[in-house]
Amino acid sequence: MIRGLFSLYSVRYVVALVYMLQNTEYQAGPYLRWYWRTTNFSKVTYRRQLDRTRPARLLLLTLRLGMLLQIAAGLLLLALWYWRDLAGGWQFGLALLLSYPIVWAHVVTIPLALGRWLVIAPRHRRQIKRSEKIFAQHPGIRLAIVGSYGKTSMKELLLTVLSEGKKVVATPANKNVAISHARFAKTLQGDEDIVLIEYGESAPGDIARFARKTHPTHAVITGVAPAHLDQYKTVERAARDIFTIADFVSADKVYVNAESLLAQPYLKKHPQLQPYSRQSVLGWRIGSVQVDFDGIQFTMTKGKQRLALYSALMGEHQAGPLALAAALAAEFGLTPEQISAGIAKTAPFEHRMQPYQLSGAWVIDDTYNGNIEGIRAGTALLKALPAKRKIYVTPGLVDQGRQNQEVHQEMGRLIAASQPNQVVLMHNSTTPSIIDGLKAGGYSQEIIVEDDPLGFYTNLHAFIAAGDVVMMQNDWTDNYA
Amino acid sequence: MQKPLIAVIFGSRSTEHDISVLTAIGSVIKPLQLSKKFRVLPVYIAKDGQWYAGEKFADIRLYQQGNLQEVLAKTPPLSLQFKQGLYLLEQGRFSKTEHHIDVVFPATHGTHGEDGELMAICEMAGVPYVGCDVEASVIAMDKVLAKQVARDHGLSTVKDVAFSKLDYEADPAGWQKRINTQLRYPLFIKPAHLGSSIGISRITNKKELANAIEVALHYDTKALAEEGVENLIEVTLPIMGNTEITPALLEEPMLKSEDFFDFETKYMQGSAGKGKGGAKSDQTGAQGYSRIPAELPKGLYEVAESLGVSIYRALGCSGLARVDMLVDSQARQVYFNEVNPLPGSLYAHNWAKAGISNVKLVTTLVELAISRHAEKQTTQTSFSTNYLQQF
Fold first, then answer.
1. What pLDDT shows up at residue B195?
2. Does the pLDDT at position B2 exceed 70?
3. Is B34 within 8 Å of chain A by CB?
4. Mean pLDDT throughout B174-196?
């Protein structure tokens, strides 16, 4: 408490404020929520350091000058009270001296909000409008990738496989909102066979807005799970939003992950949608699925056609997306050799079910996974893998809104079902719910609640040994607690 | 309830001072802290023998930046007090700090530590300590004595001639003649007490003998000349336990047969900068020079492992030790070479491959120390007589 109070007046306080702004992408709302949740500002810059970009340097300077001015004003009032007997001088002076850290932490959001509203937003609107024309006139296949999870992985997978026989481009990394689409549109040459566009929905109406601007001809729905519930409120509303893509794309060209429980009602209601799963996709039967630390292999058969495929991606849940990529490749005219070669080139993406060896143990880094369906896949994989000792590590999930408790209890049950020998939970607000779920799932082995996540991750090598398998799912940045 | 306080003692007046610093910081202090089961007090013994304590001594940069002497000059040295246990007292200018030590974790190598001296202090203070006890440490640190014990237990050793500095200097020619007639070249000339391969020479002819002996006796008061093993595969086996023994994996240096584990190879080459213990490669050991498990001809792995365990028991080791052996791959013969009662880095990289993490290793070693100490308490060490009254 006392240390927290003193941290308001430390030299590093300004750096902490700018770090918080930078980590919330200069958005006033998330920044202020983080600010008011923080009890000790000396512990804010924990995992990373402030990246001293131009805007960051400018903000540092502004804040320091502003604070100095306020301190000077406070001292002046005190001086006037002392020497000139200024009425109320010491009260106001002292108030100015004491309040400057809090005042400037809030004042700084005003130019940010104004800048966003008056300069950035109109500029973005113009760029997005221009991009609509580019997408509408593009002659290639425009494939939208939509869903609560697995979008970036699906996009990268399609890009890798389809590129074996076609000219394919995709929105970069996880740049998946309207302005990112607009910037991406500017890079299109017009001669691409396939354009992959990832949709990063976060609020009701987003999917329709993206579709109106990007004019998709095909779409993949990777699944529905509780995500961005701070905006959607319920997962049903999120699902409705995701499935609005079918209003813009012919239903027989919308490929839906049939393994996603929350997507299944829509598949039943709209039979013309195209389901894909680890059993079948677009008339192909999938079989002989084998999973180990080297990856996954499986076969696909359709009439007399047979494909034997291998990928370095980990987990049985990868069979469905891989099979869809192979089936779409066949639809788009790739030869069986090209499809096999493309699937063979797919490999785990960084921090997404990425296996590596450490101290003789296998670590599966799934720290970019942030949804319950990913947890389901990860825990299933942990259960399936052979090991002397299995360790499950997670801080829990973020942005689960009103379903936070329910989702984390479900998570606990899933972890319990994977029967790890040890569960390591990073201490935060979700921990009790996960423990409740673990108990409800009958878990009776060791649960460790870790107060120093960074210390644990940094020294993981000291905790593990040969024969261990460690599943690490999700990781929280500094702005969550 | 307060967690037990573990004093990790390292450094000391030893040629292996620097290795000890690495062992303590990398393989003992950090994992003990990570276990969250103990409070850890780093205790540094400087090269002049003074003892110091404090968190700052667990920071490797202190030893790298060249200002260690300045820091030591500003730090009050420790004094020891035996008061129903071990107390380390820090007398500052304005204050006095008293650390009541629950367990000592020696992380010293070589003389004035690993050789039994530190263990003797712990015995006198009646405090549990990690690793081999006084007797086993003394025997293990004397290569001549260790081989005699092994031979007495019917365990195979390489032929050797041992001599003291005093004896050798009285009749160098005589000793050289004895060596030349009794042993077959190539030979290894070794100081009897040093670890980390310091002062060891491999010689292939008589001309090199005098110089090699001079080198060995420069570091020690006792040395031995030992026959080289043909078709050599050198292996080492870390072992843990008091009565229940757990061997790790046989480790094999990846060197040519004419080479051997000298100090440079062990600690200065390989994956420089990674430090000891935190091996990330699956092909090699901590310093990138060894293969785990060793690839021995069929059946020899079990023979070597069994010999290692027998040696551990014969020397009365407890806690942890590492047994080095020499394998003649053609003759399918395994020889005992030496025992290291406190191996550098605890051979944590090897234990990790054997399925025991660094954190688990250090916590198990502390548990073993406590259980051995408890066991010793059941032994009566004094009894009442009226002898003095009658005298």
1. 62
2. yes
3. yes
4. 91
| C-alpha of A249 from chain center | 26
The whole-number pLDDT of residue A50 equals 85
pLDDT of the residue at B253: 83
Task: Judge: domain B160-227, CATH 1.10.1370.40.
Answer: no
Tokens (6 digits) for A185? 């549109």
Q: Do A465 and B278 touch (CB under 8 A)?
A: no
Percent composition of chain B: helix, strand, coil (DSSP 3-state, to 5): 40, 25, 40
ipTM over 0.85: no
Each residue's pLDDT tens digit, B47-100: 999 999 999 999 999 999 889 999 999 999 999 999 889 999 998 878 889 999
Cβ B307 vs Cβ B336: under 8 Å: yes
Interchain CB contact of B356 with A (< 8 Å): yes
CB atoms within 10 A of CB B239: 23
Is 3.40.50.20 the CATH classification of the domain at B5-131? yes
Q: What's chain B's length in residues?
A: 391
Size of interface A-B (CB pairs under 8 A): 51
Would an 8 Å CB–CB cutoff place B352 in contact with chain A? yes
CA distance A463 to B74: 36
Tell me where in chain A the CATH 3.90.190.20 domain(s) lie.
354-473
How does pLDDT run across B206-243, given as a tens digit for each residue? 999 999 999 999 988 999 999 999 999 999 999 999 99
Check if B5-131 and B160-227 are the same fold.
Answer: no
Residue A455: predicted pLDDT: 87
Q: Looking at the partner chain, which of B280, B353, B357 has a beta carbon nearest the beta carbon of A462? A: B357
pLDDT digits (tens, 9 = 90+) for B114-147: 999 999 999 999 999 999 999 999 999 999 999 9
The CATH H-level (homologous superfamily) assignment of domain B139-144+230-376 is ATP-grasp fold, B domain (3.30.470.20)
**In chain A, which residues have their Cβ closer than 8 Å to the Cβ of B31?**
462
B351 CB neighbours in chain A (<8 A) are 465
Contact of B48 with chain A, judged by CB distance below 8 Å, is answered with: no
List, for residues B277-292, the tens digit of each pLDDT value: 333 334 444 445 789 9
Choose among A390, A383, A380: nearest CA to A469.
A390
| pTM across the whole model | 0.78
Q: What does the alpha-carbon distance between residue B253 and residue B267 come to, in Å, rounded to a whole number?
A: 13
pLDDT of residue A188: 96
Chain A closest CA to B251's CA: distance in Å? 15
Give domain A354-473's CATH architecture.
Answer: Alpha-Beta Complex (3.90)
What chain B residue is nearest to A456 in terms of C-alpha separation? B34
Inter-chain contact B357–A357, Cβ cutoff 8 Å?
Answer: no
Q: Is B6 on the interface with A (CB under 8 A)?
A: no
CATH 3.40.1190.10 intervals, chain A: 138-345
Residue (of A353, A423, A356) closest to A395 by Cα position = A423
Asked if the Cβ–Cβ distance from B357 to A465 is below 8 Å, we say: yes
Which pLDDT belongs to residue B283?
42
A283: left (phi over 0), alpha (psi -120 to 50) or beta: left
B29 reaches A (C-beta below 8 A): no
Residue range B307-330, pLDDT digits in tens = 999 999 999 999 999 999 999 999
Selecting from A357, A388, A455 the residue whose C-beta is nearest the C-beta of B282 gives A357
Pick out chain A residues at pLDDT < 70. Answer: 46-47, 478-481
Instruction: Indicate the domain borders of chain B.
Output: 5-131, 139-144+230-376, 160-227
Compute CA B80 distance to the chain's CA centroid, rounded to the nearest angstrom: 24
Q: Which CATH superfamily is domain A138-345 in?
A: Mur-like, catalytic domain (3.40.1190.10)
CA distances from A119 to A32, A132, A347 (A): 21, 21, 41
